[in-house]
Write a structure and sequence with these properties.
With about 270 residues, this protein is α/β, with parallel strands linked by helices. It has one domain: NAD(P)-binding Rossmann-like Domain (Rossmann fold, 3-Layer(aba) Sandwich), CATH 3.40.50. Helices cover about 45% and strands about 15% of the residues. The chain contains nine helices and seven strands, in the order βαβαβαβαβαβαααβα. Strand 2, helix 2 and strand 3 form a beta-alpha-beta unit. Helix 1 packs across helix 8 and helix 4 runs parallel beside helix 5. The longest helix is centred in the middle third of the chain and has 25 residues. The chain is globular. The C terminus is likely disordered. The chain binds nicotinamide-adenine-dinucleotide (NAD). The site of nicotinamide-adenine-dinucleotide has 28 residues, from helix 1 and helix 6.
């Protein structure tokens, strides 16, 4: 039993892409969903679409996860409306592709703000709302957290940080529960999915579908739904004894021991 019906689920960056796919998967479980995104109008449209299609409660808020004041504002609204939170998915993330020798400080701060600071402070606020009943946090990492790709150092570092954040918060919040219901913290590390983030890479010519297909043993990209299913699993009671783990959902990419050298040369 997943036990997600009527559970309060908060997903950042869910106006589109993988986050939207996750919201859809929780909607199918009958959860009450809060989607928040820096693109507030797009988030509202997404919420209306999901509520209409699945007949579930979906609320949309504007949020900038790089700004702790903005995070606290949204959590105050969640507290006022529901008084608790059951599931937090830290999905909002950005990619800035640039050679390390040329990477600018402002871009470093922006990327780390969205990809690492945001998940930390959202998790902090989520844990406060999970204090009484426990809950589950799922962080969205990336296959690149362990299979590094050149020209994306800060992104790779931020996602490696997500794996560490997951492990350290899991252990900290498992230890201080004193027999109360657990707060579990896990991560999903997706491989390659054709969202706007990846299409940007195709447009810029820094990665091609051909390169991806050559590197991924399954020889195809993932469907957003395949990532969402793993998130739902880790958030559900079916994962009740799992915490501190990063689950790779990448068609075997991370399992492939020997990198395809022709792929590296092509870049
Ligand atoms: N697409 C892939 O192949 C892939 C692979 C591995 C990991 N990921 C990760 O999955 C997550 C979702 O990526 P996606 O591919 O759906 O990207 P996407 O660009 O389609 O969606 C990201 C969403 O985050 C929102 N966002 C950006 N900055 C924000 C901020 N400051 N505050 C709040 N929201 C903000 C965007 O508006 C957008 O709706 C990211 O964490 C990404 O790193 C994606």
């Amino acid at each position: 039993m997943k036990n997600l019906t009527d559970k309060i689920v908060f997903i950042t960056g869910a106006a589109r892409g993988l986050g939207y796919g996750m919201a859809e998967a929780f909607a199918r479980e009958g959860s009450k969903i809060i989607i928040a995104d820096i693109q507030e109008e797009l988030a509202s449209e997404a919420a209306a679409r999901l509520a209409e299609k699945y007949k579930v409660e979906v609320t949309a808020y504007g949020i900038d996860v790089t700004d702790v004041a903005s995070i606290k504002q949204v959590f105050n609204l969640i507290k006022e409306r529901y008084g608790k939170l059951d599931v937090m998915v830290n999905n909002a993330g950005i990619q800035i592709r640039c050679a390390s020798k040329e990477f600018q400080e402002k871009d470093w701060d922006k990327l780390m703000g969205v990809n690492l600071k945001g998940p930390f402070f959202c998790s902090q606020q989520a844990a406060l709302l999970m204090e009484r009943d426990g809950g589950a946090i799922v962080n969205i990492s990336s296959g690149t957290s362990t299979r590094t790709t050149p020209g994306r150092a800060p992104y790779v570092i931020s996602k490696g940080g997500i794996n560490s954040l997951t492990a350290v918060l899991a252990s900290e919040w498992a230890e201080d529960r004193n027999g109360k219901k657990a707060i579990r913290v896990n991560a999903v590390a997706p491989g390659w999915i054709e969202t706007e983030m990846v299409k940007d890479g195709f447009r810029l010519g820094v990665v091609s579908e051909k390169q991806i297909l050559a590197a991924v043993p399954f020889k195809r990209l993932a469907d957003p739904e395949e990532i969402a299913k793993a998130v739902v699993f880790l958030a559900s009671d079916e994962a009740s004894y799992i915490t501190g783990q990063t689950l790779y959902v990448d068609g075997g990419w991370s399992a492939l021991g020997m990198p395809d050298l022709s792929v590296c040369q092509e870049k």
